[in-house]
Design goal:
Layout: E1 3-7, E2 10-12, E3 18-25, E4 32-39, E5 46-51, E6 57-59, E7 67-72, E8 77-82, E9 91-99, E10 106-107, E11 111-115
Parallel strand pairs: 2-11
Antiparallel strand pairs: 1-3, 3-8, 4-5, 4-9, 5-6, 7-8, 9-10, 9-11
Length: about 120
């Protein structure tokens, strides 16, 4: 079955940067959308950014201009470059894969991002 593993989370000061990575293994799909979602304490999980199979990105208004999503299909990896981080960016960040062929969504276990000090 498809598996997603996030990495790159951690503690960073306001104004700092982090790059999250999501490695996909056992991928049997050739056409799929990938995305990053996040969930802060007491809040619903929300969309951060998505990128289509063709490379078209979409961002939440709260991160537009600060975050950049990209993908490397040859490496089966999606990235989220996060700049100018704010305390309100603190959340668990989840990687998502959505195949075109089926309705099933695949999720990683999440990685904690904390922006403080």
């Amino acid at each position: 079955q498809v598996q997603l593993v996030e990495s790159g989370g951690g503690l960073v000061q306001p104004g700092g940067s982090l790059r999250l990575s999501c490695a996909v293994s056992k991928n049997i799909f050739s056409t799929y959308t990938m995305g990053w979602y996040r969930q802060a304490p007491g809040k619903q999980r929300e969309l951060v950014a998505v990128i289509t199979n063709g490379g078209t990105p979409t961002y939440a208004d709260s991160v537009k201009g600060r975050f950049t999503i990209s993908r490397d299909n040859a490496k089966n990896t999606v990235y989220l470059q996060m700049n100018s981080l704010k305390p309100e960016d603190t959340a668990v960040y989840y990687c998502n894969l959505r195949p075109m062929a089926i309705t099933t969504n695949y999720w990683g276990r999440g990685t904690q991002v904390t922006v403080s000090s």
